[in-house]
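Q: Protein A?
A:
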Amino acid sequence: MKKLLRVVGALLVLGAPAYWWLFVESHEPTGTFALELAELRRLASSLPGEKPLALHVEHVASFEFPSVAVMAGAGWSNTTLPVFSYQLVFPGRTLLIDTAMDEATAQGQHATFYDSAAWARLDAAMGTAERIVVTHEHFDHLGGVSTHPKAALLAGKLELTRAQLQDPSKQDPLRFPEAARAKLPPLADQPARALAPGVVSWSAPGHTPGSQLVFIQQADGEEFLLLGDVAWHRSNWEQVHERARLLTWFFLGEDREAVLRQLAAIKALSAQAPGLHVVPGHDGEVMTSLISHGFVHAQFRD
């Protein structure tokens, strides 16, 4: 028994540093990430036309992960990660940001919740939207359009950057259809781009090569920053704390240093603009608050 206890003790001593490194430690970022409020606002006003009137959201699906997967050191209780799609309403037109996924994909990836009615509204909105953009190339953001029966038709309004297309494995378990890919409008990579009046994309590679932030300035002056999966939850950017290293290195293939620099820049930007609504990729509490205060509207507009 004493020998067994010594062996177990040795394993615990050896295992503790590995556990801390893989599941607890996040560390401070090295270097900086350029995220400039003045430039975001300049680009938001650089195109002629009316800015968006409202931001609508659909909660299409949910997954559950251990909290430590969301933020290193957060423990092993389950955390719900909702999957959202966004509709920007302009006078006479709409723009979609992220397209969630169809029900078959959600079930194949073990979703714990799926709203078929929300998917039906998103499906219809993809058909009527003037343009579709995605924060990055993962299946729960790009999957809705990549699996769509009319993907080749929708491709004419879909804007994917070269970085979002360069590594098809980032879309696992899906693939963007080649017939649709051939119809994509050419989109050169730029650090920042005015997508529409009041809408700006800001390149933020790290979570994936094609990750980008989307800044929105509405006609009423309300401002939003959609983070995609740079941060899954508010705590990531408020505490500048990454997901567990085991997840980011061995499953997601993230550039942790790049993501940490982005989280620090987002925190600094929020302090600079207290009225800015920072929207993480999968934070149900943040979205519930935005809806309850009237800043975001639940369900897409017809």
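Q: Protein B?
A:
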Amino acid sequence: METIRVLQVDAFTDEPLSGNPAGVVPDADGLTDEQMQAIAAEMAVSETAFLRSSDDADRRIRYFTPTQEVDLCGHATIGTFAHRYDEGLDPGTTTLETNVGVLEIDVDADGTAWMTQDAPQVREVDVGYDRVADALGVDRAALEGASADLPLAVSSTGLPFLIVPITYLSDVGGADPDMNAIEALTDDLEATGVYLFSFDALEAESTLHGRMFAPGAGVPEDPVTGTASGAVGAYLDRFGAFDDEFPDELRLEQGHYVDRPGLVRVQVADRVRVGGRGVTVLDGSLAVPASDDDDIIEA
């Protein structure tokens, strides 16, 4: 059996045991799809990132939930580059090959990693407020009151999310989602998950507070979601959410209702960029059986 290095990095935070935990395998060359899937299941976090060599970029990355591969993951990317910065990666720009194409990653001198996301695609959807309210376990009137100028829409900067504005922070916190109904809803809309948000945030400097549910991807509730945050930035830009000039930077709170508070920074200009910090909280090794071996991975 081969032994490989694995890490857990808490992303979109500079405090351990907060933000969104991501698995990181810094040298995944030679691992098969089956081995990567088994490692992700063993890590048992929402996504594990596998860093590999690339002919088209500086590095290649693939992402697996405990149950399936996904094309893009913001927090696992931020976590990966927070780790690389801690290991001596110089500030600057590097390229990263993903399943959705080659993206640019910028690392600031303070260790903040910025992920340039895919070109935005935003489409309004014809789905009833009753169905969305029932799936999320929220009041229909609270959805309609927030949606006068901001419609229900699927937005993507790499992964598609149904974006759902609601009136108050208490509505966000009081949501009681029906995971089966959310999975059926996202399947019908060809979306990865549902992002519920309110401009009624906890901190005065924050733009909004959100929660994200993606049971169809094996993630009932994600603590802090980079790809969804980029999608929200594109959505707010598309529908003119701000009366004045669009802010240079959005600050998105998430994770407080699952005791994993974090903050995502989003910039919307020529391209959407998502940024944040990360903290390595676990650094160890796994023994990986050969690809044709059905034994359980041993920590």
